[in-house]
Request: fold
Amino acid sequence: MIQLYSVSKKYGPFRDALMDVTFRIAPGEFVFLTGPSGAGKSTLLRLLFLEEPPTTGQILVNGRNIGVLPHSQVPYLRRTMGIVFQDFKLIGRKTVFENISFVQNVLGLPRAEQKRRAYHVLKRVGLHHQMNAYPDELSGGEQQRVSIARAIVNEPTVLLADEPTGNLDPVLAEEIMRLFVEINIRGTTVVVATHDLELIRRMGKRTLTLERGRLHDPDRVREDAPIVREAPFLPQA
Amino acid sequence: MSVRPRYVLAEAWSIARSSPRQTAAAVTLITLALYVPGLLALLSRNLGRLAATESQSAAVVVTLQPAADRHALAARLAQDARVRTVRIVGSDAALERFRLAYPDLGAALAELKEAPFPPSLEVSLRPGVPPLAASEIAAAARLWPGVESVESGEEFERRFRDAVGLMRNAGLFLGGILTLAAILSVASAVRLALDLHRDEVGIMRLMGATEGTIRAPFWLCATAEGVLGGAAALGLLYGTFRFATHWLARDPHPLLSVFWVRFLSLPAALLLPAVGGAAGLAGSLLSLGRKYRKAKPAA
Reply:
């Protein structure tokens, strides 16, 4: 579950990227985050994967207040999340397999197990035959599918996608969305930031709209926001 | 979380390959930085050996002109009540003694046709004479006809100590400066590698890599560059030593030969790669400490 309570983000004294944003996303839900450019969609996602801290307010992911998470624990939190970007963010000098199995490699997972998992997720995105290819040998749609495979290889509870179809044509965009739906059906909470209203309309999912940093017609949480303090998030065994 | 060593090794290799010129420059600079003090250490070691040999000899050494009457001068010295013995050392005897002191020079000395050492008188003093006696006798003998030069054992020792100390200090000073330059060079190489990997570092962070995981390959890469530079310096030094001994064997020179008798001891030799590794690590820590924090994730 993802919960935001009166979250604001300021850049300097005059620029409010987010103002008093409050919403709740249930476990296993599929939610679109939309709004015009500069509305705060990417900022909101950055707060969710702790690239930046909120100026005020509280953010809870899976019941944990990530605002009080020690810096050293952030990597472990990120491993429970999958992140997909518009520009894919694949490492060019690594093969598809190496891009996908990076975290498992660091953790010392046996190579056979890494390959098994990579093959499994690549099969889900239809790229199991490209395991040894380099990113620049793939099309934009294929690269995005690799980045989705990388995001789900650790079986995250939450998948965040920032304009994942922004660089793709409508057919490929549809294909990628189908993948997200499939991932969501398996129980992963999916949050997709996009300004493609047509795509959102076709998908028919719940939508949170941001406008100039404020949540428009939000699914407000009416009860008082609890103050959450907890022990540091520990790495999973 | 334990970081997989194979991953760190592979990444370190990849970092080194990503900026080959900078890597080569860093290794070269470390090589030079350690070669110079290594060379001075080698020379001072051999000179120190000579000093140790000489310190065991006479209290006063009177070097004579070739035509001087050595017996008359010896008798004149023996008249001093503080003198216990006066030993006449001819040119041949001096050469023979030198051969015994430096058996390693073997070939270089065997080919000597002429005795390069002038005749001399070695004066030993009676036990219990004041420490200044040697200097006083030396000062008096300097004025005698037929005497080329006179040095007291004290002066001899002091000169050797000064020479050895000078070499060691010069080695430390130059080594310190050059090592500092090497550290900065490694830091610069790491900085460049970090710039080249900036996006990757950002992506790795987003994927959940810990700071240790990201930094470890940079540390390893720089340390390996340092060890490699130190090993290259050692190799270069050994090459120089072999060349010098080979050259001196063909064209013997009694003075220069003194400096090229023994190579560095094993601990001293191993110190070069160790210092190189430490310099590399220091460079990477310096670079990662400052630059790394600025490498924001690429999101």
